[in-house]
Design a protein that fits this description.
By secondary structure, the protein is of the alpha+beta class. The chain folds into 2 domains: about 100 residues, no CATH class; about 90 residues, no CATH class. It has 7 helices and 5 strands, in the order ββββααβααααα. Helix 3 crosses helix 5. The protein is globular and about 40 Å long. The protein starts with 10 loop residues before the first strand and ends with a helix.
Amino acid sequence: MNSPPTATALHDFGQVAEHGDSFELFVDRAAGATCRMVAVVQTERGPKRTLLAEIPGALWRRIGPRAVRELAQGMGEDERGRAKAPTLKTGGNRLSPLLGRELTLLLWTLQEDGAEAELEAILQGWRELAREERWWLFSKASAPGQRTGLGWRRALFLKLRQLRAEFALGLADLDRGAYTDYDADDLPKLAERIKAVGRERLAGE
């Protein structure tokens, strides 16, 4: 990957501590450009920036708006700040450490070989994860030795795709009448049960 960019004129996505650790997402909508995520850690010598993920700008345009809506919907009032509906802008955007981890997890998955063909499954699988699950998976996939194509990052790509498939299969069984002890009011509970199975398998790897 290229060296991380120097942050200038950053737009805050929700509430971000002015002098604390953060993540920076750089969105370039020009043809052939990339979308980059940078981690910013405050040190005694000043901010240390590390490039974490980079995907084609064209790929971000296909998935970005829906990923942003998912993040915004999950934010608490203390995370939103003054913005009722936080948005990302072209150029540099600052995110809190928690939101940055969630989005970086998705970007890592999109870096994997074959991700573009599985775009909808990956997005849906990521959305099915609870925020706490995304934070935990980020900690695993950011450990020393983890990188694209290997370890937790490759496993994450495979499992997000599988999680979506398991969820869809469960709903298909419901539609065929396989779950005769459920009625329409119980569908949310059944959906949670189906998702829980996929989450347990994911956490057990």
